[in-house]
TrEMBL record:
Biological source species: Maribacter algarum (ex Zhang et al. 2020)
Protein name in UniProt: DUF2490 domain-containing protein
Keywords: Signal
Signal sequence segment: 1-18
Organism lineage: Bacteria, Pseudomonadati, Bacteroidota, Flavobacteriia, Flavobacteriales
Domain of life, per lineage: Bacteria
Length: 236
């Protein structure tokens, strides 16, 4: 009964926040994340996100990311990766960078290199994850000359709490810090309900509050997480 009340309370909080704060329109992010184990120490990160200014329409951003994970141990992972991002030039992040939406008549293309370190720990039933990430952002820089390069640091604290063997709650807060110009970039606050659908597959539905220095965006998030062990297929 208590778990049911918690679920209902979270849904009510998400819907209330979405109606009361942020931009006028509730947008949506549709996401896939994968960790594909290929050896005892190595796995491949795969990720795809399609983001909209409105719920399921009005394109905002396409993000494709991949990387090689090195599992130091079960609680520490180092990653080196690459991301391809196509963004509507009217998006707030690029207005902050001084890119004129009227001048940019097509999507802003960004090639992104990133280095990442994850630490995990457990306190009681609460699972904590600390993610540290550095990014080198080549924005509309086709020849990687460095003329339009932005550097950024990110830190995310994520907390997961199991409600049962199937359902769980997931929360995180992530801050973005620019390593040039204005330091503060953005902050993302997220809360969700998740379900373990299969052994290696889970889904989450939640609410994201994306805060920029001069704008706030409310986003519904729907995520699929698929983490297969590819070593088993090789053995077969």
């Amino acid at each position: 009964m208590k778990k049911t009340v918690l679920l209902l309370a979270l849904f009510f909080t998400i819907s209330t926040l979405a109606q009361q704060i942020g931009d006028d329109t509730l947008g949506s992010w549709h996401m896939y994340f994968g960790t594909n184990k290929v050896s005892e120490k190595l796995s491949i990160h795969t990720e795809a996100q399609l983001r909209y200014y409105e719920n399921g329409k009005n394109f905002n951003q396409l993000l494709l990311r991949t990387g090689l994970n090195y599992h130091i141990n079960e609680n520490a992972i180092a990653t080196f990766g690459y991301g391809y991002i196509a963004t509507d030039p009217t998006f707030e992040d690029f207005r902050i960078l001084g890119i004129d939406a009227e001048v940019a008549d097509s999507n802003i293309i960004e090639h992104r290199i990133f280095e990442q370190f994850i630490l995990k720990n457990t306190v009681g039933q609460f699972k904590f994850e600390h993610r540290y990430r550095l990014e080198q952002r080549f924005i509309n820089d086709k020849d990687f000359s460095g003329k339009d390069t932005q550097h950024r640091a990110r830190y995310r604290l994520q907390v997961t709490y199991p409600l049962s063997k199937v359902f769980f709650l997931n929360f995180y807060d992530e801050i973005f810090l620019n390593l040039q110009d204005a330091v503060y970039g953005q902050n993302r606050l997220y809360g969700a309900i998740g379900a373990n659908v299969f052994k290696n597959t889970s889904v989450q539905i939640g609410y994201l509050k994306n805060h920029f220095p001069s704008a706030n965006f409310d986003r519904l998030q729907i995520g699929v997480f698929y983490n297969p062990d590819l070593r088993k297929k090789v053995k077969e």
